[in-house]
Known about the structure:
Low-confidence stretches of chain B: none
Structural class of chain A: mainly alpha
CATH topology of the domain at 1-78 and 189-256 in chain B: Rossmann fold
Largest interface: A-B, 23 and 28 residues
Oligomer: heterodimer
Order of helices and strands of chain A: HHHHHHHHHHHHHHH
CATH class of the largest domain in chain A: Mainly Alpha
Number of strands of chain B: 10
Strand order of the largest sheet of chain B: 6-7-8-3-9-10
Radius of gyration of chain A: 24 Å
CATH topology of the largest domain in chain A: MetI-like fold
CATH superfamily of the largest domain in chain A: MetI-like
Number of helices of chain B: 7
Order of helices and strands of chain B: EEEHEEEHHHEHEHEEH
Helix content of chain B: 25-40%
Amino acid sequence: MSTIATVGVGKANKVQSRWLVGVKRLKNFGLLAVVLLLWQVASTYILDKTTAVLLPPPSAIARAGWEMIQTGELFAHLRDSLSRELVAFIWATSAIPLAIAMGWSKTINDQVDPLVEVLRPVPPLAWIPLSILWFGIGDVQNQFIIFLGMFFPILLNTIAGVKNIEPNIIRAAQCLGASQPRILRRIVLRAALPQIITGIRVGLGVGWMALVAAELVGANSGLGFLINDARTLLRTDIVIVGMITIGIVGLVIDRTIRIIGRRTMPWSRALAA
Amino acid sequence: MATLTATGVAKEFPGHSADDPSVLALRGVNFTVNHNEFCSVLGHSGCGKTTLLTLVAGFDEPTEGELLLDGKPIGKPGWERSMIFQDYALFHWLTVEDNIAFGLQMKNVAREKQKSIVNNYIHLVGLTGFEKRYPHQLSGGMRQRVSIARALAVEPQILLMDEPFAALDAQNRGLMQQEMLRIWQHARKTCLLVTHSIEEAIALSDRILVMTRRPGTIKADLYVDLPRPRDEDNPSVIALKKQIRDLIHNEFEIER
């Protein structure tokens, strides 16, 4: 009904329908609001004082969050975490040329594949103890763990992307006179790009999880450090502020990559979904 | 000038085990396609006609024999032998005009000149107004028009076509055949078309090579000396169709 109504009518109706969509969206947060309300009531009135320390009410969390934003503390930790994620990501993009080489050359694939298959099932977190011994506590160790989390999703998705290219597309390029390097750059890389973007999305997500774990034990700053440090001081409000921030930032990263993918590759059906 | 000559061409695909023996796809193939001639290769599926086309394109090498284009042996794939594929094989991340310009970029044609050539071929294949569209926004027939323009834009010496209209519905197929004829008459080229459709071969060709079953070889070399467009009900067309059908049908009987 509403779609029929918006066809060919003026701006006013369009604005109204957008407003309606907004209201409808808002309805989806009903349960969340109820949970928050119950939580607030439980923490304030039902739990005794000692237990309430373990589960502070949403209002206290909001207060703590606001304070941390004002003092800049939250942003300082966020900045450190994001810069680690970014540095690790730059290193992890090395998976793209490697995967293209593997998808393109059987020899390279045969040599690299066993190595990948052995390393891939080891969770990034299992590397934490060894990496602390190698790099000590701090940025490099964190970046290494995040890098491991990102590397394999990007690698595997890119390999799949290259292998899925229709052979006739390569042939078409060949008989239009494209040389091997040009085919790799202008055909293989471009045709595999949607899957590479998917790999990057998954990789950034896994990396973000690995980041928090790495910072829990091996950092002096960052969101993971923040929540672990607050735990030792029993500042559960700060812990939860940190957790919420981690969640929101993870979501924003994921959405941003998706939007960039869709905007830059309108031809991709894989990214349109 | 562009004359294609095949002498004693054979192609064997090596097997890998006793269960997977080697396959002789082509044997003793001899023919010549003359300059600006539209030549069709007609045969059952699996007779090796597509294999023959991949050899001419340079995607693969013959096991025996020689393929010459204007007296020079055919080497790696290149723009002088551009190809139109059944599944269009368009670069789906490029717009119509960028698809057509791709080969020109590979040839390092000057940018200004690229533009005029692209516009010229877009006009020729009837895609004016669709320059900025992506392939997924086009119908099958329009995609094949892009593919034709892309293959012609590089000005190949010979145009290769692998069942180019087989993926289209019957109406569109007929329409695209007429279009192909119109385009070919405007941009005269040596053409080698592989098809299993007798009607398509008769509608388009100056010459029809009928192939045997595997291992494929040329069974008959027919000249179609009829004015175009060729009416299906024309007695000569009907006679030719019957002649070719018998040739192909006999082949089937022998096989059994």
